[in-house]
Amino acid sequence: MSEFIYDRVLLKLSGEALVGDAGYGIDPKVLKSVARQIKELVAGGLQLAIVVGGGNIFRGMSASAEGMDRAQADSIGMLATVMNALALQAELENIDVVTRVQSAIEMREICEPYIRRRAIRHLEKGRVVIFAAGTGNPYFTTDTGAALRACEINAQCMLKATKVDGVYDCDPAINPDAKKYDRITYKEVLTNDIHVMDSTATSLCKDNNMAIIVFNLSEEGNIYRALKGEAVGTIVEG
Ligand code: GTP
To answer: How high is the mean pLDDT of the chain?
Structure first.
């Protein structure tokens, strides 16, 4: 049992969240802050799996919009997530958090292949499991990869770390009157086309009753507070 309201969760980190002030790639300050927060969660007995995106290095969708074949662009994007996963693993191991990286695309020389039952065993042993390479398929986002892994490992919820402090009815950067939701249903997200995740990821969570907590990663301590049951960000549920 953990000291939190959940025992096993999946944390989705967007690649962009790792950029910080660096402008491109990985900001070591952000990586260190994320690693510190993760260490605190694991020390509290939480079983934690992580999915990292790759948008800080390569965005498959943008490249495809510029004319690159979508499947090819997505392959590059999936490789970018592996770089982020290995960087996060290195940072966590620097502060003595035991981790395993599992990739949906086999690259045994640098990490384990994704094996569901093995991932669950790692979690039971208190290791942080970082899932890389999305679902291993083009045309799926890392959000969908995260939703899929969260369901597969029987996570009790999915934490989606972003650069904004929750879900709004319109873009708060453009509209100062944008309203933030404390709670919203999957159906509202899908029907009103509210930007939380792509519709494949949201539908997967809806069909499997996987709650999503959307919160701002840059406020240190947010993950901890959300897992203690405090109202942080927006919760998307049935
Ligand atoms: P236990 O079964 O609980 O002992 O788990 P374990 O992960 O420690 O077992 P194992 O002996 O399989 O792994 C030892 C180390 O090798 C770990 O750091 C694994 O991440 C790593 N490892 C295991 N399989 C692979 C693989 O296919 N490729 C790579 N690169 N590393 C692997």
So the answer is: 95
